[in-house]
Design a protein that fits this description.
Strand content: 15-25%
Largest sheet: 8 strands, mixed
Structural class: alpha/beta
Oligomer: single chain
Radius of gyration: 23 Å
CATH class of the largest domain: Alpha Beta
CATH topology of the largest domain: Rossmann fold
Shape: globular
Number of strands: 13
Length: 425
């Protein structure tokens, strides 16, 4: 049976190529392939980790690597359920592959959703010193590919994090050309329509590949249930899974809002500690992420009130108070983009609010960002502009207002549409 599964999961052995939309992160995989370190691909379920691994396989074959030197195994295949507690079965899989294909030279081993097997790190470490094996492993849990891995494999791995489709990847999937200004002007109507679709439904490939909103929602709900009941509940031995699920729906119904742990604890009749743990689990599987309120002292930031964001806009469409709040959608989408660009993002709220304060090593000051779907109304325009006046640390701050489709300069403030923010990256 194992032999049949390996043949089924490795169509490249018989010359079949997996064709898909090339993801932006492929270039990182290609850069890491010649190195000895294990490549880990992390990301939320259904974001395309397996597809990215297959694109790496295609690249290797294009570089004249023999197909039988490449092994791909999806460890979530039902056949492996009876073996997931037996780490040594990973050896059995590898040995069976060697018998079948008799590879010569360097071997590339891709284990997809490796967290399915307990103590998988022990197997990987046992093979790591073998110069003839290059591992690529994927997983849907940040703890599995950071804390646990680093404990046993410190310095031996390089991570590539994969999000759901970015806006530019989404445009490529729709065959909309955007590479230069001429193409963007020529395709401005198609780009505008795509922006509205992406704003509302996010970047899960299976979601934007169907047209009916009801089907999109069903797919997203199935994703959430799979993540909660396959990735979170078993790993953390959660007994009251209903509270966990209800909390998630509550959080995405209040996305971009301030977290109040005490109030949440009262609402769900659990402790503050449990609420914090559950939100941490959602972060571990890349569903949600929280940010701190800005302060010049790190300790104060850590203790500050948090704002919560979703890592894909589509998830907002299955909230318990489902409605199309365009301002929230745009703010969340802007956060997703910034999260891919900056190591540190905060918010600020006193008399006025700054939606995002971004810092990195390439800029000595701060990037201050306000998000407003539409600033055509004078009252909204003044509110957004005035917010910047109340945040000044004497540094060369870069000020921006992100809108849906307005582009202009107001004194020292850049007003950019979301797509112009992407082009300027």
């Amino acid at each position: 049976m194992l032999k049949e599964i390996l043949i089924e999961q490795n169509p490249h052995w018989s010359g079949t190529k997996n064709i898909s939309i090339v993801r932006d992160q492929l270039h990182k995989i290609i850069d890491y392939l010649p190195l000895k370190q294990i490549i880990t691909i992390s990301g939320i379920r259904r974001c395309g980790k397996s597809t990215l691994a297959w694109q790496a396989i295609n690249y290797l074959i294009d570089q004249q690597i023999l197909a039988n030197n490449i092994l791909f195994v999806n460890l979530e295949q039902p056949y492996f359920i009876d073996h997931k507690h037996n780490t040594n079965y990973l050896n059995t899989i590898y040995d069976e592959y060697l018998k079948m294909m008799n590879p010569q030279g360097r071997v590339y081993v891709i284990f997809d959703e490796i967290q399915f097997f307990q103590n998988w790190q022990v197997f990987i470490k046992s093979k790591y010193e073998n110069q003839s094996i290059k591992f690529i492993i994927t997983g849907s849990n940040s703890s599995l590919l950071s804390n646990d891995l680093n404990t046993l494999l410190s310095g031996r791995s390089l991570n590539v994090h994969l999000d759901t489709f970015s806006f530019t990847e989404f445009l490529r999937s729709q065959e909309i050309e955007y590479d230069n200004e001429v193409e963007r002007i020529k395709n401005r109507i198609a780009i505008a329509r795509a922006k509205e679709e992406y704003l509302e439904w996010g970047g899960f490939y299976e979601v934007f590949s169907v047209t009916q909103p009801s089907l999109k929602r069903e797919i997203l709900i199935s994703y959430v249930k799979n993540i909660i009941y396959q990735d979170i509940v078993p790993r953390h031995h959660i007994r009251n899974s209903e509270v966990l699920e209800r909390l998630f729906y509550y959080l995405i119904s209040n996305i971009t809002g301030i977290l109040n742990y005490t109030q949440l604890a009262k609402t769900f009749e659990v402790s503050d500690k449990t609420i914090k743990e559950y939100i941490g689990y959602f972060e571990d599987v890349f569903m949600l992420k929280k940010i701190d309120k800005f302060h010049t002292k790190e300790k104060v930031q850590i203790k500050s009130s948090k704002k919560i964001f979703s890592l894909d806009n589509g998830l907002l469409q299955i909230s318990i108070k489902h409605s199309k709040n365009s301002g929230i959608l745009l703010e969340n989408l802007t956060y997703i983009f910034l999260n891919q660009q900056y190591k540190k993002i905060n918010y600020y709220r006193e008399k006025y609010e700054i939606d995002f304060i971004c810092q990195d090593d390439s800029f000595s000051g701060y990037r201050l960002i306000q998000v407003s779907y539409d600033i055509s109304h004078e009252k909204t325009r003044k509110r957004e502009i005035n917010s910047f006046k109340y945040f000044d640390l004497g540094k060369a701050n870069k000020k921006q207002i992100i809108t849906l489709d307005t582009n202009e300069i107001i004194n020292d403030i850049e007003v950019k549409s979301f797509d112009q923010l992407i082009w300027a990256k």
